[in-house]
Write a structure and sequence with these properties.
By secondary structure, the chain is of the alpha+beta class. The chain is built from 15 helices and seven strands. This is AraC family transcriptional regulator ligand-binding domain-containing protein.
Amino acid sequence: MTDHDTSPPMQPLAHSSSLRLFRAFMESLGLGTPQDLDADLVRALDQPAERVPARMIVDLMQACALAHGRPDLGAAFAAWADVAGYGPLSRMPDHCDTVAEVVEAGLRFMHLENGALASDIQEDEDEAVLRCLVMVDSRQGSSQFAESILMLSVRVVRRMLGDFWTPLRVEFAHAPPTDLKAHRRLFRCALRFNAERHAVVMAPRDLRRPSRVADPQGRKAIEAQLWAMDQAWSRGAGELAERAVAALLGSGEARLDRVAHSLGVEPRTLQRRLAAEGLCFAAVLDAVRRREALDYLRGAHRPALTELAQRLGYGDASAASRFLRSQLRRGVRPTRPPA
């Protein structure tokens, strides 16, 4: 693979429970799946294996929302589903003392449940930002999957702190739907669309407030199960590097040295492990940037080069412009027009 190869270095997997839950949700609404679904996705719905390509749930949610004219479908699904029905990790909120502990478990073990998702958390004196990162390049966009994860995150915190709890705001890195009634009813907080990230923003104190449902007795058993699953999980250097790059990209810190440090290895070690898989760091970085650019361009109402450059980790718009033209053969305006 050359430095200019933009194909993804790996194909994230997800537990098929997400597919089964979403299909049950659609049936509860009396809605069918679109007729033009990918053949692999149709087979996965009919005879799901334990693990399926993670893009399938992202593609399915987006296709169903478009086919049925339901821009709230992802959020509505997350509001309907059992928050503890996705696997061992989804049961952790009932056994952790604080939201911070749940976030930490998610950072460590999310790949076991859904490789389409990664997250990070940033905290200052005023805000704690739980950012959700979509790790697959969906064919029709990933806004529905992102909204389902944001709604699920809000529900988890409400489960722990009480249904009265609301975030400071929820941010969406795509354009708003025409009608926001459903989103306002579900999220019950300030909503910000066309943002630079998908994120739930809360008060820092909420991260460490004691949970009202904590049951520490079962936590050790769940953690042991997760650790055993993690030991059996065969993750290549490409997958690890891609998740680290995605988490660091928007901050402009997605460099080889920083990515290697976040993975606990030396830069040369990371390069050697990538090379053993036929990869190089530049290819991983390009693949993540290409996915981020496509996701932004699909969702932004008025794409702006300066805004996209920041999402791609570039210090100036001209570098982002060169990337777009070399990788996607298209351009974007340098500034966002006035509203």
